[in-house]
Amino acid sequence: MFIPESIRIGSCDYEVEFTGNGLVANRKECYARIDYDNHLIEINSKLGDKQQRELSFLHEMFHAIAKERGLEFEDEELIVDELAKGLHQVIRDNQEMFVDRPYPINSKEEINV
Predict the structure, then answer these.
(1) Which residue ranges form the domains of the chain, and what is each CATH number?
(2) 42 Cβ partners below 8 Å, 6+ apart?
(3) 3-state DSSP call for residue 99?
(4) Strand 12-19 vs strand 23-25: parallel, antiparallel, or unpaired?
(5) DSSP 36-95
(6) What is the mean pLDDT of residues 25-42?
(7) At what angle do helices 76-93 and 50-68 cross, to 10 degrees?
(8) Fewer CB atoms inside 10 Å of the end CB: C or N, the chain?
(9) What is the reported pLDDT for 40?
(10) In which region does residue 14 sit, left (phi positive, over 0), alpha (psi from -120 to 50) or beta (all else)?
(11) What single-letter DSSP state applies at residue 105?
């Protein structure tokens, strides 16, 4: 999975930055955090491996989607974390699905993968 330098969520463009400085939330170091006011997703490059960074990016992306869509959850961290893990698994298991290519003109034709 490729983590982009920016991502548009709703009407907002969020910059994505990797930082070697520790990210702190609720007085503990975290994998990533989102700044809604400055439209910034920061990913801690000191913690975890590539898969953890991907998962952390998706986690923060789901926070942004919830905010942009006005969704409120009783336990947002749990919901966002489970959605991020689920989407990460789908992406890893079905990478060919995320490659842009034309669809066949006739809907009965098979799509060659």
Answers:
(1) 6-95 (1.10.10)
(2) 17, 18, 19, 23, 32, 33, 34, 35
(3) coil
(4) unpaired
(5) TTTTEEEEETTSS-HHHHHHHHHHHHHHHHHHHTT---TTHHHHHHHHHHHHHHHHHH-G
(6) 92
(7) 120
(8) C
(9) 97
(10) beta
(11) S
Half-sphere exposure of 61 (CA within 13 A, CB side): 20
Q: Is 38 exposed, middle or buried (0-12, 13-18, 19+ CB in 10 A)?
A: exposed
Interior angle at CA 54, CA 60 and CA 18, nearest 5: 75
The C-alpha angle 17, 61, 41, rounded to 5 degrees, equals 20
For residue 99, give the amino acid letter: V
Question: Other CB atoms closer than 10 Å to residue 73's CB: what's the count?
Answer: 10
Q: Quick one: tokens of 35?
A: 């700044």
For 57-103, write each residue's pLDDT tens digit: 999 999 999 999 999 999 999 999 999 999 999 999 998 888 887 87
